[in-house]
TrEMBL record:
The keyword Repeat applies. It comes from the Eukaryota. This is Pentacotripeptide-repeat region of PRORP domain-containing protein. PPR repeats lie at residues 146-180, 216-250, 251-285, 286-320, 321-355, 356-390, 391-425. Transmembrane segments: none annotated. GO terms for biological process: mRNA processing.
Length: 502
DNA sequence: TTAGGGTTAG
């Protein structure tokens, strides 16, 4: 009971007081509480325990953390450790400290999955020395590294703008005791293609190694999709030709990739002709094909054609999926009217479909956009009663539109409602902080400052621009003391303008 | 973490 209370204090956010910490006595109680998690734990208990431990890690003195962790009367499990690492995602150094302390735990040994998480975190911090040290330790313990581990590392290199190093990682797998196969080959190709490095994937990897790994339909599809992602449909078509020449039969996925590629490149005519060709060649058109068509026509405002395709699929005996409805509803919102979108929503419900998070978010955004705030809020309530919890996007949309409409209070009250499954992200803070400037009130600027403190506390680094803006605002409204505090924070975050020195 | 469809505005 008391644990729940503590939890709530720690995780709930209040705008005006901003981020509550455990008071020292409660903290001590928490540490000494012997049964706050028992041997047999439900998923809910694991989640709660993960939150508690993450808080403990964040608030403990680094020197005493190891002792605190080892002293806890609870059985660590791989699931629990993974959850804690996820909670500490934005606190890389702390997360790695936690991981390291547990490596020396008397009765717990890390799983491969936790190693992968830790490697992911170190990679995100671009701390490659730690990445490879962890890989070596995994190997020493004979629990990896696996192809998944290498996929994670490659992905991190690509995200850091080093695709060539990602390729090297793939090529070095065997040296680290991990066999390569067609699977891992396709994975690295996909990682490169999804980051729009298709040229490199094709020339430096695919062309060189497709013989060795016996490239299959999946490999070719990945490359074709890569070209489509950068709107180079002729190259994708070449790949299609090439695979046929090599005796591989394109699948429906191949065709759908090309079709989507045409729409993405704005080649409506080609898309339509390609669709007709698919029919002529008696390719087994599926629900993805139709969804692509509905969405493709809809986004360019061809609502009638989108509707026609939608109706046609039913005639062909192919049932729309929730994704198909989502596509239709989205384009109705954007290019037709939100009223018709709502009608479509009700129609799908009547037919027995269960709207998902995307469905709700699309309708809610449409309603806000049309200025129908009340109805949008009704839908937010409706999704909750439907057992579909609003996520960070739902809240961000609501906050953004309320603030844009000048109703800062409503925006703030939406922010306060955000909870466990929908914690604020960088976007949320940016929108809110900007909104604190519209009324030009001194109190608002203090709130902006507090939001800034809170976002840093949660591992988000504000832009220099945001810092300066808040700083100037506070100075102009006579909040000198608070401005000083913000300036110290700015320095800590390495976001200080050059002329400043503390 | 081997491939294809549906969520953002500025």
């Amino acid at each position: 009971m008391l644990r729940r209370k503590i939890n709530r204090r720690v995780t709930k956010t209040k705008t005006n007081t901003v981020f509550l910490h455990l008071s020292p006595p409660l903290h001590r109680f928490f540490l000494s509480c012997p049964n706050f998690i028992t041997q047999s734990t439900s998923a809910l208990d694991t989640a709660a325990a993960a939150t508690d431990i993450a808080t403990l890690v964040l608030e403990s003195d680094p020197k005493s953390l190891r002792g605190s962790l080892h002293g806890l009367q609870l059985q660590f499990t791989p699931e629990l450790v993974d959850k804690v690492l996820k909670r500490l995602w934005f606190h890389g150094p702390k997360a790695l400290q936690f991981f390291k302390h547990l490596e020396y735990h008397p009765s717990y040994a890390h799983s491969a999955s936790s190693f992968d998480h830790a490697i992911d975190i170190a990679g995100r911090m671009r701390d490659y020395k730690t990445v490879w040290a962890l890989v070596a330790r995994m190997r020493a313990r004979r629990i990896g590294p696996s192809s998944k581990t290498f996929a994670i590392i490659a992905e991190r290199f690509v995200a850091a703008g080093k695709p060539d190093r990602a390729i090297k990682v793939f090529l070095s797998m065997r040296e680290h005791g991990c066999p390569q196969d067609l699977h891992s080959f396709n994975t690295i190709l996909d990682i490169l293609c999804k980051s729009k490095r298709v040229e490199m994937a094709y020339n430096n990897l695919f062309k060189v190694l497709r013989g060795k790994f016996k490239a299959d339909v999946v490999s070719y599809n990945i490359i074709a999709n890569g070209w489509c992602l950068i709107k180079r449909t002729p190259k994708a078509l070449e790949v299609l030709k090439e695979m046929v020449e090599r005796g591989l039969t394109p699948t429906i996925t191949t065709y759908n990739i090309l079709l989507k590629g045409y729409f993405r490149a704005g080649q409506l005519k080609e898309a339509w002709e390609f669709f007709l060709q698919m029919k002529e060649r008696e390719v087994e058109i599926d629900v993805v094909t139709y969804t692509t068509m509905v969405h493709g026509f809809g986004v360019v405002g061809e609502i009638k054609r989108a509707r026609k395709v939608f109706n046609e699929m039913v005639g062909e005996g192919i049932l729309p999926s929730t994704a198909t409805y989502n596509a239709m509803i989205q384009v109705l919102c954007k290019k037709d009217s939100v009223e018709n979108a709502v009608l479509m929503f009700e129609e799908m419900v009547k037919k027995g479909y269960v709207p998902n998070l995307t469905t709700y978010n699309v309708v809610i955004r449409g309603l806000f956009h049309a200025g129908n705030m009340d109805k949008a809020m009704e839908f937010i309530e409706r999704m909750k009663t439907d057992g579909c919890e609003p996520n960070v996007q739902t809240y961000n949309v609501a906050i953004r539109y309320f603030c844009d409409a000048g109703d800062v209070e409503k925006g703030l009250s939406m922010f306060e409602k955000m909870g466990q499954g929908s914690l604020p992200n960088l976007d949320t803070y940016n929108v809110l902080i900007s909104a604190m400037f519209v009324r030009k009130k001194s109190e608002d600027l203090v709130v902006a400052g507090k939001l800034l403190l809170e976002m840093v506390d949660r591992g988000f680094i504000p832009r220099k621009f945001t810092f300066n803006r808040v700083l100037n605002g506070l100075l102009l409204t006579g909040n000198q003391a608070f401005a000083k505090e913000i300036l110290r924070l700015q320095s800590k975050c390495g976001r200080l303008p050059r002329q400043f020195k503390l």
